C-alpha cells in the first residue's frame, strides 16, 4: 500500500479531495480496491459507505480489477441502433459474467462504454487497444476463446 500512501500524502484529506483521490487510486491500481477505500475513509473522516456512495455515482470508477483482456463494447447511438445490446448479451453468456465484472481467472473483463469513434463501422467493440468493427454475436466465441 506504499502507492496508496504516496497518493494520500499529496492531499490534505478534505472532503473535496475525495474524487481526485479516487481518480488517482484508480489510475494506479486500475480499479478501487476495498482496502484503499477504507484508508481513504480514515484519511478524510468520511464514512466508507459515503465514499462508496460517491464512487458508485460516477460511471468512471470500477470496483473489480480489469482482466488481462479488457472488452469494451460501444453503446453509443450508432452502435446501439446496430445491436450493441445483443453483443453485450452474447459476451455475458459466453463469459458467464455481467457487464462491469471480471472472469474468476482474471482473463476477461467486460465494460459498456460510450462512442469509441468508429461509428460508420458499428457495432464496435475493443479488446484492449484493438478495435473490432461490425462485430456479430456469432463471432464472440472465436474472439474471446476460453481455456478449457
Ligand atoms: S457509437 Fe459506437 S463507435 Fe460511435
Automatic annotation (TrEMBL):
Keyword Acetylation part of the UniProt annotation: no
UniProt entry keywords in alphabetical sequence: 2Fe-2S, Iron, Iron-sulfur, Metal-binding, Oxidoreductase
Enzyme class: oxidoreductase
Pfam families for this protein: 2Fe-2S_thioredx
Cofactor(s), by name: [2Fe-2S] cluster
InterPro entries (alphabetical): NADP_DH_HndA-like, NuoE-like, NuoE_dom, NuoE_N, Thioredoxin-like_sf
Gene3D superfamilies named among the record's database cross-references: Glutaredoxin (3.40.30.10), NADH-quinone oxidoreductase subunit E (1.10.10.1590)
Keyword match Amino-acid biosynthesis: no
Any GO MF annotation of the entry: metal ion binding
The protein's Enzyme Commission number: 1.6.5.11
Classification via CDD domains: TRX_Fd_NuoE (cd03064)
Family note: Belongs to the complex I 24 kDa subunit family.
NCBIfam families (UniProt xref): PRK07539.1-2
Protein name, per record: NADH-quinone oxidoreductase subunit NuoE
Organism: Methanothermobacter tenebrarum
Species lineage: Archaea, Methanobacteriati, Methanobacteriota, Methanomada group, Methanobacteria
Amino acid at each position: 500500500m506504499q502507492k496508496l500512501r504516496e497518493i494520500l500524502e499529496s492531499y490534505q484529506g478534505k472532503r473535496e479531495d475525495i474524487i481526485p483521490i479516487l481518480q488517482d487510486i484508480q489510475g494506479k491500481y486500475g480499479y478501487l480496491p476495498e482496502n484503499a477505500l477504507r484508508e481513504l475513509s480514515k484519511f478524510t473522516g468520511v464514512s466508507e459507505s459515503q465514499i462508496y456512495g460517491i464512487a458508485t455515482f460516477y460511471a468512471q470508477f470500477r470496483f473489480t480489477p480489469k482482466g488481462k483482456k479488457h472488452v469494451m463494447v460501444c453503446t453509443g447511438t450508432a452502435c446501439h441502433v446496430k445491436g450493441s445490446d445483443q453483443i453485450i448479451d452474447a459476451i455475458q453468456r459466453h463469459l458467464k459474467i455481467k457487464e462491469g465484472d471480471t472472469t474468476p481467472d482474471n482473463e476477461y473483463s467486460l465494460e459498456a462504454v460510450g462512442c469509441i469513434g468508429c461509428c460508420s463501422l458499428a457495432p464496435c467493440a475493443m479488446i484492449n487497444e484493438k478495435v473490432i468493427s461490425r462485430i456479430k454475436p456469432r463471432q464472440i466465441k472465436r474472439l474471446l476463446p476460453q481455456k478449457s
